[in-house]
Design brief:
By secondary structure, the protein is α/β, with parallel strands linked by helices. 34% of the residues lie in helices and 23% in strands. Strands 3-2-1-4-5-6-7-8 form an eight-stranded mixed beta sheet, sandwiched between helices. Helix 1 links the parallel strand 1 and strand 2. The protein is globular. Bound molecules: 5-O-phosphono-beta-D-ribofuranosylamine. 5-O-phosphono-beta-D-ribofuranosylamine binds next to helix 1 and helix 6. Its EC number is 2.1.2.2.
Length: 195
């Protein structure tokens, strides 16, 4: 199975996914694509010999369709079987997503359906939640929605800042996403629940 990974920043989730696709794993990375030509994830991917591409979203301003038409070119050329959004920070339209329906995954730093959108760690602390975590889900037209394929749960400790919590959740993202990708690539949609 060919896996394309979309990143916007440092790409730590991409690295975890790429480094998991070895040996008898049924998938291999075929492209790392970003909306930012300077994204640290692109350098890390290139260092691992993975083809990369970037389509800067800024020249397209509000014209999301035009940006996505450009983004689609390297993505379709890579002929992915699975597309993983990994720290990809642009909202994708239903039209774009529909081209990969059922084979596009995303990781979101909350226990969905709680805290869709941004600033999830601060919101969980603010709400006084005992637990927080991350979710891998199939991408649908609705933001941070779609069938849940895995979750990792962490406790919120007294005195946690959003940064403390984000760092702890990120470590679990790096465990959860590779586990979900392997199952998904094997055709198994049984949710992965960690720890
Ligand atoms: C992190 O905040 C992570 O929680 C979310 O995307 C951000 C960057 O992740 N999934 P990465 O290091 O670029 O994978």
């Amino acid at each position: 199975k060919r896996v394309a990974i979309l990143v916007s920043g440092g790409g730590s989730n991409m690295v975890s996914l790429v480094d998991s696709m070895t040996g008898d794993h049924p998938a291999r990375p075929c492209l790392v694509l970003s909306n930012d030509a300077l994204a640290g994830g692109l350098k890390k991917a290139a260092g691992r010999g993975i083809p990369t591409a970037a389509v800067d979203h800024r020249p397209f301003k509000g014209d999301r369709a035009a940006f996505e038409a450009e983004l689609l070119k390297p993505l379709q050329d890579a002929k992915p079987d699975i597309v993983c959004l990994a720290g990809f920070m642009r909202v994708l339209t239903g039209d774009f997503v529909s081209r990969f329906q059922g084979r596009m995954l995303n990781i979101h730093p909350s226990l969905l359906p709680k805290y869709k959108g941004l600033h999830t760690h601060a919101r969980a602390i603010e709400a006084g939640d005992a637990d927080h975590g991350c979710t891998v889900h199939e991408v649908t037209a609705a933001l941070d929605d779609g069938p849940i394929l895995g979750q990792a749960r962490v406790h919120i400790e007294a005195g946690d800042t959003p940064e403390d919590l984000a760092a702890r959740v990120l470590l679990w993202e790096h465990k959860l996403y590779p586990a979900v990708l392997r199952r998904f690539a094997e055709g198994n949609k049984t949710p992965v629940l960690l720890p």
